[in-house]
Amino acid sequence: MSINPRPLQIIPYLLYRDVPAALGFLARAFRPVNRGGIRNLFVLAAVTLGAPSAVAGGSDALCAAAKKPVEAEPRLAAAVAAVFGKAAFKATSEDCIYPLKVLHYATADVLIVQAGEPGLACHGCGAPLSAYVLRRVDGGLKTVRAYRKFAAPGTFGTVGDISPVEIGGDDGMAIESGGMFQGYGFTAVDFYAFHAGQLLNLNTTPIFIAAENSGAEMDSSKAIEVTAKWFFDPADKTALVVDYKIKAHGASRVERVVWRLQGTSLVLSRGRVPPEVSEASGGG
Questions:
Q1: CA angle, 57 then 58 then 59, to 5°
Q2: Where are the alpha helices (DSSP H) in the chain?
Q3: Are 150 and 113 in contact (CB under 8 A)?
Q4: What does the alpha-carbon distance between residue 179 and residue 269 come to, in Å, rounded to a whole number?
Q5: Measured distance CA(160)–CA(177) in Å, rounded
Q6: How crowded is the C-beta side of 192, counted as CA atoms within 13 Å?
Q7: Which of 2, 141, 228, 230 is the most exposed place for a label (fewest CB within 10 A)?
């Protein structure tokens, strides 16, 4: 199949800057190709279509507390400079911008920032996150797409690890977060994919990967600890595998649970989340 666009296919973008329509053409054109070959479709689209640069506001938008961490990481500093220019690290407001991490993909970088300094929000408040896609140009970086406040996971305005992943042929990210409530602790992970010009949340509820109730149970015989390791099946990038290890009531066991990508959602397809996860995290 030829991938040369017909006039009607390229008109939506050329005349009206209709990015979704143009992305639709790219998806249709590359459908016969092995999905591994188009895993960076969102990057290709951003680079090819040249979406306008979008940066946050004034010269004092960056959190003062972020200055040292950013300057200590050259790649992070370069990404921040590409997105925010010469913005000064002097803001102390609740909605100042705090750069967190740069995710490195095959043909682009993605800068993740949050609104507000981590750890200063309320107990049940998440961290509002934004993502900026950066194209590598002549040894530098250029902002080509922004996804503002696409998610607000975590507690106390703080998230855990953020890592790049490949999900069903799309580039994406995994965001871990957790908290402690009245002695019950938990960690969960949310998955997002760059798909057809959008940044989509693939699991409507967080997938728990750790839980423990040691702070709530005085009786050690009732203590529960659940830990887990997750990964996408190397042979099938639509399958999320979570291996749970459960220690409860003097015994331990392991269980494997699998979620599978159906459309734009991760759906439980094998096993069940161990009931101890709910019990240890305070869910009863």
A1: 135
A2: 7-16, 19-29, 41-49, 67-71, 74-84, 275-280
A3: no
A4: 27
A5: 5
A6: 25
A7: 2
Kindly state the tokens that stand for 25.
Answer: 């053409």
Reading the block at residue 43, the tokens are: 């990057």
**pLDDT exceeds cutoff 80 at 278:** yes
CA angle 100, 106, 109 (to 5 degrees): 25
Question: How far is it, in rounded angstroms, from Cα 34 to Cα 24?
Answer: 17
Classify residue 157 by its DSSP letter. Answer: T
Per-residue pLDDT, averaged over 187-203, amounts to 97
Q: Residue 125 gets which letter from DSSP?
A: -
User: Which tokens go with 208?
Assistant: 């728990």
Residues paired with 244 in a beta bridge: 228, 255
Express as a percent the part of the chain with pLDDT over 70: 79
123 token code pair: 């107990």
User: What is the SS3 assignment for 87?
Assistant: coil
Q: From CA 175, how far away is CA 153, in angstroms rounded?
A: 8
**Could you give the CA distance from residue 204 to residue 265 in angstroms, rounded to a whole number?**
8
Higher pLDDT, 217 or 225: 225
As beta bridge partners, residue 254 has 245
For the segment 44-83, what is each residue's pLDDT rounded down to a tens digit?
344 434 444 445 444 448 999 999 999 999 999 999 999 9
Count of beta carbons in the 10 Å neighbourhood of residue 146:
19
Q: What pLDDT digit, counting tens, does each position of 150-175 carry? A: 999 999 999 999 999 999 999 999 99
